[in-house]
Amino acid sequence: MTTNAQLLFNAIPKGEPTSDSFKYDTSSTIDLEQELSNGASIVKLICVSLDPYMRGRMRPAEIKSYSPAFELHKPITGHGIGVVIRAAADSKYKVGDHVYGTVPYQQYLFVPGQQTVDEETKKFLGPQASLRVIKNEEGLPWSAYIGAAGMPGKTAFMAWKEIADAKKGEVAFISAGSGPVGQMAIQMAKADGLKVISSAGSDEKVAFLKELGADVAFNYKTDDAKKIFAEHGPIDVNWVNVGGKSFEEELEFMNLHGRIIGGWISAYNGQSFGVRNLFQFVAKRLMMRGFIVGDFETKYVDEFYATIPKKLAFGDLKFKECKYTGLENAPKAFLDMLAGKQSGGFGKVFVQISDDDTA
Amino acid sequence: MTTNAQLLFNAIPKGEPTSDSFKYDTSSTIDLEQELSNGASIVKLICVSLDPYMRGRMRPAEIKSYSPAFELHKPITGHGIGVVIRAAADSKYKVGDHVYGTVPYQQYLFVPGQQTVDEETKKFLGPQASLRVIKNEEGLPWSAYIGAAGMPGKTAFMAWKEIADAKKGEVAFISAGSGPVGQMAIQMAKADGLKVISSAGSDEKVAFLKELGADVAFNYKTDDAKKIFAEHGPIDVNWVNVGGKSFEEELEFMNLHGRIIGGWISAYNGQSFGVRNLFQFVAKRLMMRGFIVGDFETKYVDEFYATIPKKLAFGDLKFKECKYTGLENAPKAFLDMLAGKQSGGFGKVFVQISDDDTA
Fold first, then answer.
1. Contacts of A273 in chain B (CB under 8 A)
2. What is the pLDDT of residue B315?
3. Per residue in B28-52, pLDDT tens?
4. Which of A31, A192, A288, B88 lies at a C-alpha separation of 20 to 30 Å from A280?
5. Do the chains contact at A66 and B283, CB–CB below 8 Å?
6. How far apart are CA B44 and CA B354, in angstroms?
C-alpha cells in the first residue's frame, strides 16, 4: 500500500478562509498494484488549480449555489491534470495518457470505468464531468492545461466571444488583469482591436499588463481609477473580475450601450458592498450578463483546444503562472491567491503535486 | 391675442419634487389669427402625459443624462396629443389632424414647418422627434395615445419583445403592475404563455392586476414578497419597474439564466439603495439590460401602431387611465403619480388640457 496524501476540507470559514479551513492528511493509502477491471484506471495527479470560485464551495452543504459545496472532511475538488499510471485492458485510457478534469486533490486517483457523478456536480460541470485526454502536441508545461489552456483560459475565451460583442476601436476595461482570466481577456480584447485599460495590485503586475498589450495599465492601490476612466474611457466592455465598490465607480464611466461581463470575485468571501447606481443601466442602456464557464463549454470547447494551446506554445498568447510545490502547500497557495499576494510572483496559481516522470 | 397658459419648470427640487418645482403661468399669449407660411401650423393640445422619467429631467442643465434637463422658467416638455387648428397651405398637417409627439406643456403650440430640434433632444427622442399624425380609426379616447397606445405602452411592448426572451410556461414578475408600463407588460407576458406574478400598492390595484390576467397578485405594502416568490417563483423574467431594496430581494428568487428588464423608477428621486447581491448574476447566470423606449422605436413602431390600438379598442388588451383636468393641475398629477397616490383612481396619469371640440 502507498500513502495517498489528501487535502481535506476541514472547517467552514467565517469570512476569510484560514489555513485551518484545510487539512493536509496522509492517513489514506491506495493499492497501486491492485487488479483493475471494468474499465478502471489509476491516475497520478501532476498539478492542481487554485481558483477564486473555490471559496464559494467552502460553505455549509445546505446552502445551495451554482457549485456544489465541498464536503467536510473529504478532499476538496477542482481542476487538475494527471497521468494514467495503470489501466484495465478495457479502460478508455492508456498508461501514459494525460487527463484533465475535476478531481479530488490527492496524490493518486482511482478512476472507475463508469464514473458516477451526482446530479448537482454534473449540473455544475456540464460536459466537463469526465476526464479529457490532453495530447499536448504543443509541448506546453502541463500546468498550462489548468491555466491559460484550462478553465481560466476557457472562461476568458468563451465569455469574451459570447458576451463582449466587441467592436474594433471600442474600449475594454479588465480588472485583475494579471490573474489567469484577466491575462487571457486582455489578449482577446487586443486581438479584436479594442483599446484596453487594465488594473492590478502591484507595479510589477502593472508592467506585465503592458507586456500583455494593455494600452493603459494602472495600480488600483495607488492610482485613481476614476481619473483614468475619465481620461481613457468611456468603457464599452467591462470585464468585472472584482466587483463591489470598484464596479460602482466603473458604472459611472460606462459608455452608452456598454456590455458588462460578470465575475464578482469580491463577493466570494461574503463581502457585500451595495451598488447604488444601477440606474446607470437605464441611463446608458447597459447590458450585464453573469456566466460560468461550463455554460459555454459545448459551444466553444473544440475551437478552444484547436487554437489556444498552439498560440500559447508559439508565444502568440502570453501567460504567467505561479507555482507552489507539494500538496501540503495548497492551503497557502489558495490563501495567497485570494489575497493577491503570491510569494512566488503572480499569475495563475497552481500546485505541483508530482513531476511527470512517465512522459 | 389669446392667453396661452404654460406649465413652467420653476425650481430644481432637492430630493422629492414639490408643487413649487412648477409654476402654472398665464402671462404668455399667442395670436391664433396670425398669417401662417412656410409649412407652419398651430396645434391646440388636448392632453399631456405625466411619467416617472420626467423626474430625471428636473435637474441642473450641467448634469448630463440620457434625457435633456428641463430648462428653468421654460415650459416642461413631454408626450402630448393635440389637434391642428390652423395650417399654412404648404403645411404637412391639415386642420383637424391629430398629432402625437414631444411638446411643451401649454395650451397652444406654434409648429414651424421645419422643426428645429437641438442635438441632445434629437438623440433622446430618436425617430419621435417630429409630430406623428394619429388617425385613430379605432376610436380610442385620445388619451390612450399617450398611454397604452403611446410611450408607456411602447415601452412595455418593445422592451418585452427585445429583452424578455420569453418562453411559454416561464414565470414573469412585474412590479408596479397597475402603472401604464406594468399593465401592458402583464398582458404581453400572458400573451406569451407565462405565469405572471405582479405587485402594486393597494388592494384595489391588486384586484386590477388580476383583471389584467396576473396569476398571482400581491400588495407589496402588506404582503411578504419573499414568501410569494418562494411559493410561486423562481422568476425567469423580472421586469424591474421599481428597483432598490425590492430588486435585491428579487435577485434571490431569480431562476437560472433569468432575464432582467431594467427600469428603476425608485432611482429617479435620487434614492440610492445599495444592491449587495450582484454575485447572483454569476451564481444564476443572469442577464440584465436597461433600455429607453427610443432605442427600439425604429424597429417596432410600425408593428406597434398596426396592432396595439386595435387590441385596445376591441378590449383584447385592457388599460386604465387616471385623468386630471386642466393644465393647472399637472403639478398635482405629477406628484401624485410619483407617490403612487392618485386621487382619481390609478393607472396612466394624464392631464386633459382641452376637449377635442374640432373632431
1. 274, 276
2. 96
3. 999 999 999 999 999 999 999 999 8
4. A192
5. yes
6. 8
For residue B125, the model assigns a pLDDT of: 67
Note the CATH number of domain B151-294: 3.40.50.720
Q: Where are the beta strands (DSSP E) in chain B?
A: 2-3, 6-9, 22-25, 29-30, 41-49, 77-87, 98-104, 108-111, 132-133, 171-174, 195-200, 216-219, 235-240, 254-262, 287-290, 321-325, 348-352
As beta bridge partners, residue A132 has A100
Average pLDDT over residues B298-315: 96
Pairing of strands A348-352, A321-325: parallel
A247 contacts in B (CB within 8 Å)? 278
**B280 to chain A: which residues are within 8 Å by CB?**
290
Nearest to B84 by CA among B117, B115, B47, B46: B46
Query: How much is the mean pLDDT over chain A?
Result: 92
Task: Name which of B284, B290, B295 is nearest A66 (Cβ-Cβ).
Answer: B284
CA–CA distance, A304 with A159 (Å, rounded to integer): 12
Q: Which residue of chain B is at minimal alpha-carbon distance from A65?
A: B283
pLDDT class for B359, splitting at 50, 70, 90? Answer: very low
DSSP three-state, residue A51: coil
Q: Tell if the CB–CB gap between A283 and B247 is shorter than 8 Å.
A: no
What is the Cα–Cα distance from B69 to B56, expressed in whole angstroms?
Answer: 8
User: What is the domain partition of chain A in residue ranges?
Assistant: 2-147+320-352, 151-294
Measured between CA atoms, the residue of chain B closest to residue A263 is: B282
Nearest Cβ partner for B286 among A275, A279, A290: A290
Residue numbers in B near A65 (CB within 8 A): 283
Task: Tell how strand B171-174 and strand B195-200 pair up.
Answer: parallel
Give the model's confidence band at A106: pLDDT under 50 very low, under 70 low, under 90 confident, else very high: very high
Rounded to 10 degrees, the C-alpha dihedral B68/B70/B74/B78 comes to: 80
Interface mutation target, options A271, A277, A282, chain B, most CBs of B under 10 Å: A282
Residues of A with Cβ-Cβ distance to B279 under 8 angstroms: 243, 264, 267-268
DSSP letters spanning A246-310:
HHHHHHHTEEEEEEEEE--GGGGGT--PPB--TTHHHHTT-EEEE--GGGGHHHHHHHHHHHHHH
ipTM attached to this prediction: 0.90
Which residue has cell 460583442?
Answer: A165
Domain covering A2-147+320-352, topology:
Quinone Oxidoreductase; Chain A, domain 1 (3.90.180)
Mean pLDDT of chain B: 92
Q: How close B268 comes to chain A (CA, Å)?
A: 8
In this complex, the residue of A280, A283, A292 whose CB is nearest that of residue B285 is A292
Tell me the C-alpha distance between B226 and B221, whole Å: 13
Dmax of chain B from CA atoms? 67
Judged by CB atoms closer than 8 Å, whether chains meet at B290 and A275 is answered as no
Amino acid at A260: I
CB contact under 8 A, A273 and B274: yes
Which whole number is the average pLDDT over B218-242?
Answer: 95
Written as nine digits, the cell of B53 is 422619467
CA nearest to B82, candidates B351, B317, B275: B351
Residue B262 pLDDT: 84
For the four alpha carbons of B200, B203, B204 and B208, in that order, the dihedral sign comes to positive
Neighboring chain A residues of B254 at a CB cutoff of 8 Å: none
A10/chain B closest Cα distance in angstroms: 24
Name which of B278, B280, B297 to mutate to probe chain A: the one with the most chain A Cβ atoms within 10 A of its Cβ.
B278
Residue B288 and residue A281: Cβ atoms within 8 Å? Answer: yes
CATH superfamily of the B2-147+321-352 domain: Medium-chain alcohol dehydrogenases, catalytic domain (3.90.180.10)
Residue A257: name the closest of A348, A345, A132, A171 by CA. Answer: A171
pLDDT score, position A66: 80
